[in-house]
Specification:
The complex is a heterodimer of chains A (97) and B (206).
Chain A (H helix, E strand, L loop, with lengths): L13 H22 L6 H21 L7 H25 L3
Helix pairs in contact in A: 1-2
Chain B lengths: L2 H7 L5 H32 L1 H8 L4 H26 L3 H31 L7 H4 L3 H37 L8 H25 L3
The chains are: A mainly alpha (97), B mainly alpha (206).
Chain lengths: 97, 206
C-alpha cells in the first residue's frame, strides 16, 4: 500500500515545471502581441481565452491538480460552474437593458 | 499497512485534509475577487469607450514585466516544492528565497507604477480624475482596488513563504513533511492566476 497518502504521487519533474513556465511566457507574448491588433470585440474574447489557457496550466501542473485526487478536481469544477452561472445570469440581464 | 499502524508510525497528520482546507480558502478568495471581476465586467460593458480611453494611459511595459516576474515566481515556488520532495533542502530554501525576492521585485514595480499614476494626478478623488468622464473614474477606481487588493495578496503570500523558508531552515519542513510548503505554494499560484486575468483586463485594452 502507498505510504504517506497523496504524497508520493503529486510531483512533476523539474523539466516539466520549466516547460510550463516557458509556455506561460509564450502565452504572455502572444496576448501582448495580439492586443496591438484591433480585433474589435474579439480582442477581449481572445485575451480571456489565453488567460484561461494560462490558468489551466498553472492549475494542472503548478498546483498539482493533474495528479491530485478526484475530489480536488470536482471542487474546482463546482466553483467554476458557479462563477459561470453568475456571469451568465449577470449578462442575461445587462445585455438586454 | 492499516490506518492504525500508520498513525503510530507518524504523528497524526492529514495532508489531504490540509490541502483541501487550503483549496477551500482559495475558493473564498475566488468569491472575493470574483465579485470584483463581475463588477469590472458590468462597468466595462456599460462604459466601453471610457474604459478604452482610460486604459490607454496604462503602462503596458511595466504590466508585462510584472506578469513575467509573477509567472517566474510561480515556477520557482513549484520547483522549491519539487526540490523539497526530493530531499534537496538547500536548493528548496534557495528557490523559496528567490520567490520572495521576485515578490518584492513585483511590489517595487507596482510602487513605481502607482507613483507615476499619482504624480499624473490619477488617484481616487483627485481633481484631475474627477474632471474626467464617469466611466474613466470607474476604471481608475477598479484599477486601484483590484491591483491594490492583489498587491496585498502578494505581500501576504511573500510573508507566508518567508515563514515556510524559516521552517525549512529549521528542518520543520523536510522531505517527509512538506505539506505546509505545498499549501503556501497553492496560495502563491492563486495570486499568480488572479494576476493572469488582471493583466489583460487593465493593461491590454487598446
Amino acid at each position: 500500500m502507498e505510504k504517506p497518502v497523496g504524497h508520493q504521487a503529486n510531483t512533476h519533474t523539474y523539466g516539466k515545471y520549466i516547460f510550463v513556465w516557458l509556455a506561460l511566457l509564450a502565452f504572455t507574448a502572444i496576448t501582448v502581441a495580439v492586443a496591438g491588433i484591433n480585433l474589435g470585440n474579439y480582442s477581449i474574447v481572445l485575451a480571456i481565452v489565453i488567460a484561461c489557457m494560462k490558468s489551466y496550466l498553472v492549475l494542472t501542473i503548478f498546483m498539482h491538480l493533474k495528479v491530485e485526487q478526484k475530489a480536488f478536481k470536482i471542487f474546482l469544477f463546482v466553483a467554476l460552474l458557479f462563477i459561470f452561472i453568475t456571469f451568465a445570469l449577470l449578462f442575461s440581464d445587462y445585455s438586454f437593458m | 499497512m492499516s490506518t492504525q499502524e500508520y498513525a503510530v508510525e507518524q504523528v497524526h497528520r492529514d495532508d489531504i485534509g490540509t490541502k483541501i482546507g487550503m483549496w477551500l480558502f482559495l475558493y473564498s478568495e475566488l468569491l472575493l475577487f470574483g465579485g470584483l471581476f463581475f463588477m469590472y465586467s458590468v462597468y466595462r460593458f456599460t462604459n466601453q469607450s471610457d474604459f478604452h480611453i482610460a486604459a490607454k494611459n496604462m503602462n503596458i511595459f511595466i504590466g508585462t514585466f510584472n506578469t513575467i516576474i509573477l509567472l517566474t515566481s510561480s515556477m520557482t515556488i513549484a520547483l522549491a516544492i519539487a526540490a523539497m520532495q526530493r530531499g534537496k533542502t538547500k536548493l528548496s530554501i534557495f528557490l523559496q528565497f528567490l520567490t520572495i525576492a521576485l515578490a518584492i521585485f513585483f511590489l517595487v514595480n507596482k510602487y513605481i507604477e502607482w507613483s507615476h499614476e499619482i504624480a499624473e494626478g490619477n488617484y481616487p478623488g483627485s481633481p484631475t480624475l474627477l474632471a474626467k468622464s464617469h466611466g474613466q473614474i470607474l476604471f481608475y477606481g477598479l484599477y486601484y482596488v483590484m491591483t491594490g487588493l492583489h498587491a496585498l495578496h502578494v505581500i501576504v503570500g511573500a510573508t507566508v513563504i518567508g515563514f515556510m523558508t524559516r521552517f525549512s531552515i529549521k528542518g520543520k519542513i523536510n522531505d517527509k513533511n512538506y505539506v505546509r510548503l505545498e499549501a503556501a505554494g497553492l496560495y502563491w499560484h492563486l495570486v499568480d492566476i488572479i494576476w493572469i486575468f488582471l493583466f489583460p483586463l487593465f493593461y491590454l485594452i487598446i
